[in-house]
Design goal:
This protein has helices spanning 2-5, 33-38, 77-93, 111-118, and strands at 11-17, 20-27, 46-55, 61-70, 99-103. The longest helix has 17 residues, at 77-93. Helices cover 29% and strands 33% of the residues. By secondary structure, the protein is of the alpha+beta class.
Length: 120
């Protein structure tokens, strides 16, 4: 995955089109967490991967690759079912996922949630 090995992207979002999962948005290495959250549509589901970096209390830079399943309450029931049914197989196809977050609204996708899940 270009996200982990080459640091080509800060985040990637994916959407299901027909029988395929395709890249929806690519976040440049300079993208912020706010940019990541802004890429999550208000009324539609997505899978997303984010390269979360932080400085630990001892001053050491750390990072974890986080997978987010984004299924807002306002999205269509059928769409939520399709994303839920294919999530595990899609996630297994990704390399290096260390943290998983399931979010149904923007409060569950907040930076504080990401920080807590990643252990910082």
């Amino acid at each position: 995955m270009a996200l982990k090995s080459k640091r080509k992207f800060k985040f990637l979002t994916y959407k299901i089109e027909g029988d395929n999962v395709v890249v929806d948005e690519e976040g440049a290495p300079s993208a912020t967490y706010d940019d990541f959250v802004a890429a999550l549509p208000e009324n539609d589901c997505r899978y997303a991967v984010y390269d979360h970096e932080w400085t630990a209390d001892d001053g050491v830079m750390k990072n974890k690759i986080a997978f987010m399943s984004w299924a807002p309450d306002t999205s269509k029931v059928r769409t939520k079912m399709v994303y839920a049914a294919s999530k595990d197989s899609f996630k297994r196809a990704l390399d290096g996922i260390q943290v998983e977050i399931q979010a149904t609204d923007y409060s569950e996708a907040d930076l504080s949630v990401m920080n807590a899940k990643c252990g910082n």
